[in-house]
Amino acid sequence: MDPEMGLQEEDVEASWTLLSWFASCLMVFGGALPYVPQYQEIQRSSNTEGFSTRVCLVLLIANILRIFFWIGKQFELTLLLQSVVMILAMFTMLHLCCAIQNTNRVSTKLHRLTDLDLNYFWKWSLFEDYLLFCFGFTVLCAVVTLLLLDSAVFVEALGSLALLFEAMLGLPQLLQNFNNRSTKGMSVKMVLLWTAGDVFKTTYFVLNDSPTQFWVCGSVQILTDVAILLQVLLYNQDTRVKLG
């Protein structure tokens, strides 16, 4: 074998390994990056009205379910780590939103999880209530998974449910923008990064032969991202017309 050809093959293999490692790191941390500009926007404006905290609810449920799906069907470790990072990122967003809302609150009445008031579900005053809800949901998932782990149907259903929730990621924001007839307070950079990330990860899923649920979820998310960006154009145009 030609020594030069052998060296070239080693270089190609090393480059591919480096590229694969970089793509994996991007998958792990890339999902949380879009929330950096939204976090900064909320800090700057001291206002949370433009951001739907139900995005955090959807992602927390999706990623908790995905972790239990991984226990039943070991797919790429990268996607498991991505879920852990995303859960931490969502708790960070909720902590900031609670702090800002409590600072701006006029009423002294607190809404707690223990009130069991569905009208204030996921609108609680204290960050601890969000932690408690997620802890309870995790324990419930752990018990059910332990009982049904040997069922292939259950494991596949768990994965599909996790990805169904993840596919709904942008829906709370889409609905909030629609109800407000405005995208004020929502970071457009966040949505652009959502779109870029969803395109990247959907491509990643296809190239790595990930379970079908993953790339279907990614495709739905891309469509939702595009719808939110269209809202940005629509509502900004409506605002200009009214001001004009």
UniProtKB/TrEMBL annotation:
GO CC annotation, single: endosome
Membrane topology per record: Multi-pass membrane protein
Predominant place of localization: membrane
Stretches that traverse the bilayer: 20-39, 51-71, 77-100, 130-149, 155-175
Keyword Transmembrane helix applies: yes
Location of this chain's protein in the cell: Membrane
Species of the source: Neogobius melanostomus (round goby)
Keyword Nucleus: no
Keywords from the UniProt entry: Membrane, Repeat, Transmembrane, Transmembrane helix
Protein origin, superkingdom: Eukaryota
Record protein name field: Solute carrier family 66 member 2
Biological-process GO terms, alphabetical: phospholipid translocation; retrograde transport, endosome to Golgi
